[in-house]
C-alpha cells in the first residue's frame, strides 16, 4: 500500500470524524489503494483511496445506484455518497 494513499485516507477519515459519521471498516485489496467500507440503513458504500484521489460505489438494497472515480481529495464531500 502506498504511503500517499494512507495519507489521503487519513484526510478522508478526518472529514468523516468531524461530521460524526461512524468510522468505516478500513481494508486493502492487495493493490496500492486503501478501501473503506460501511453500511448505513439500506445503503452500502465502498470508497477506494489512492494518492490524492478517491472513487466510490454506492448501493441501495444490493443494487448499485451511483459510482464515480478519479475524484480529487480536495473535492471530497459527504454529499457525493448520499
SSE layout:
Layout: H1 3-18, E1 25-27, E2 34-40, E3 43-49, E4 53-60, E5 63-72
Antiparallel strand pairs: 1-2, 2-3, 3-4, 4-5
Task: Report on the architecture of this protein.
The protein is an alpha+beta fold and 82 residues long. Helix content is 20%, strand content 43%. The chain is built from one helix and five strands, in the order αβββββ. Strands 1-2-3-4-5 form a five-stranded antiparallel β-sheet. The longest helix is centred in the first third of the chain and has 16 residues, at 3-18. It is globular and about 35 Å long. The model has no long low-confidence stretch (mean pLDDT 84).
Which key terms come to mind for this protein?
single chain, 82 residues, alpha+beta, globular
Task: Give me the Rg, rounded.
Answer: 12 Å
Structural class: alpha+beta
Shape by Cα distribution: globular
Helix content: 10-25%
Element pattern in H and E: HEEEEE
